Amino acid sequence: MRSLTDRTVDLLVIGGGIVGAGIARDAALRGLKVALVEQSDFAAGTTSRPTRLIHGGLRYLELFDFGLVRSDMREREILLRIAPHLVFPLAFLLPLYRPSFFYQLKLRIGMQLYDALSLDKSLPKRQHLDRAATLAAEPALEPDGLAGAWRFFDAQVPLVERLVVENLVDASRHGAVVLNHARAIGYIREGARVAGVTVRDEIAGRDLEMRAHFTVNATGPWLDRTIAPLRREPAPLLRLTKGIHLVTRRATRQAHVLFAESDGRLFFVLPWLDATIVGTTDTDYTGDPADAAPTEDDVRYLQDGARRAFPNAPFDDIYFTWAGVRALVRVEGVSESEVSRKHALFDHERREGVAGVLSVVGGKITAYRAIAEEVTDLVARKLGAPRVPSRTAELPLPGAEGADLAARASALGVGDRALAHLRSVYGSRAGLLIEAVATDPSLREPLCPHDPGIAAELVHAVRHEWARTIGDALLRRTALGLRACQGLDCLDDIASRMGALLGWDAARRTAEVAAYRREIEPMRRFSME
User: Fold this and answer.
1) Number of neighbouring beta carbons within 10 Å of residue 91
2) Is there a single domain that holds both residue 231 and residue 182?
3) Sign of CA dihedral 150, 153, 157, 158
4) Residue 241, phi then psi, degrees to nearest 5
5) CA-CA distance, 516 to 96, in Å (whole number)?
6) How far apart are alpha carbons 33 and 30 in whole angstroms?
7) Ranges of the chain with pLDDT below 70
8) How far apart are CA 111 and CA 101, in angstroms?
9) In angstroms, rounded to a whole number, what is the distance separating the alpha carbons of residues 320 and 74?
10) Where do the H-state alpha helices sit in 231-315?
11) Which of 155, 173, 185, 524 is the most buried (most CB within 10 A)?
């Protein structure tokens, strides 16, 4: 902390979601001195509440947004290449029920366009399946009226939180300083220029001044609130929409694109970890994005839509839900689902005469790397920095670096199931956890009877990945908080282990357990348990 207050960085990023993390990595790789602050935990906002897809977006073809689809297809290929341990090909079925001739023609053209806009793709091409092949691929589908399906490929990022963490790990490797639970509470002004921010360290309970030659605001749905002190015009830059997802008992073999009968909106039913995701909704939202939560109507909308295609699937067996708020570039006069997912950059100097600050408006996870490259290009020009091209499209993320871990894991008593789990979460960085077991064999003990994770994950989360609360560790570093039990059966043990690392006394451990229960309570309001 002291080193940050004693010097001025080149770039200060406000917001530790996927876009902020991507900007920090890109800028640090180019040699800029970078700091990033996040009011809560990295990825704790909208980033951890999506459909967890890396895709071009079939529905954007209907909006004739070919440029966005093409750009996102290119980014999908880059992420499959630089993060193969986190981003995986995923086959989708789009079932056809009593389709009219014109509907079939529309879909055929759409599928051809989707392939044509991704000429450099590594994924298989589209395929039309007849009724028998469709039911063989997905026996749970409602057979009545089923004429067949289109199969096409996109990609999934099951642990998007890890994508954020690995961007920050790489940024940190290259000199960036990143702080979570550090809320920007005011801008430092030097005349008409922003020279940094005042930050409240929520853990230590103190305020810090962080000075920077340039500041980028990447606060997602909080943007209008966080830039209000800089603006003369009150007109909001964002249109906020809420999206919810259900996580249920495993319901299907395949990923599916479906359309809601009530309003014709596209939504997904996806295999995820050992469960199923159903989502998403898209409704206008006002209020604090942190307060977004699913309603009974939201849940019923998704359950009813999914049951049309899968009448016997266990969509009532809800493990938990999540609700997130999208930050979209503000457009009036169209429905929520018709608002473009394109991002925009708001240059406060050009628009309102306030120098030294830039805001990122909108954007989506698939595009985060390209947005970060665009932002860093602009910041470097404004700083007069040497022209250094972005390398983020070529350099693998840390966990993608190859490593043979099996022999070492076996020698240390880390079983095959635990090793497979560690690889699925950390990629090659699982080697760091295995080496932790070498120094303390007790760290190979399981954390929870419902999860293959081991105690070394908590040590790694605290010592190497900035986890400061139970929620940080379970929901956004390990995968335990994303299991059906969400770690509730082993909370006291987890609090004890984290407390030993972070110096918590008995009262603090009790408070941290209570805080975690409060954090996940909105997720469990519709839980079957």
Assistant:
1) 15
2) yes
3) positive
4) -130, 145
5) 43
6) 9
7) 1-6, 63, 332-334, 336, 338, 529
8) 15
9) 33
10) 296-309
11) 155
Are residues 507 and 417 part of one domain? yes
DSSP string covering 434-492, please? HHHHHH-GGGGSEEETTEEEETHHHHHHHHHS---SHHHHHHHTSSGGGSTTTTGGGHH
The answer to whether residue 139 is domain-embedded is yes
pLDDT in tens, 368-414: 999 999 999 999 999 999 999 999 999 999 999 877 899 999 999 99
Q: Is residue 366 part of a domain?
A: yes
**Cα(104)–Cα(231) distance, rounded to whole angstroms?**
49
pLDDT in tens, 275-314: 999 999 999 999 999 999 999 999 999 999 999 999 999 9
Query: Does one domain contain both 176 and 265?
Result: no
For residue 19, what are its two tokens? 């876009």
Is the same domain home to 366 and 444?
Answer: no
**Which residue is it, tokens 């990033």?**
36
Residues 422 and 470 in one domain: yes
Residue 177 phi/psi, 5° resolution?
Answer: -110, 125
Cα–Cα distance, 29 to 8 (Å, whole number) = 18
- How many domains does the chain fold into? 3
CA distance 357 to 347: 7
Identify the domain containing residue 378 by its residue range. Answer: 2-46+161-237+341-383
What residues have CB less than 8 Å from 147, skipping those under 6 apart? Answer: 96, 97, 98, 99, 131
Domain shared by 140 and 25, yes or no: no
Residues 318, 312: Cα–Cα separation, whole Å: 15
CA distance 339 to 239: 9
Query: How far apart (Å, rounded) are the C-alpha atoms in residues 81 and 397?
Result: 10
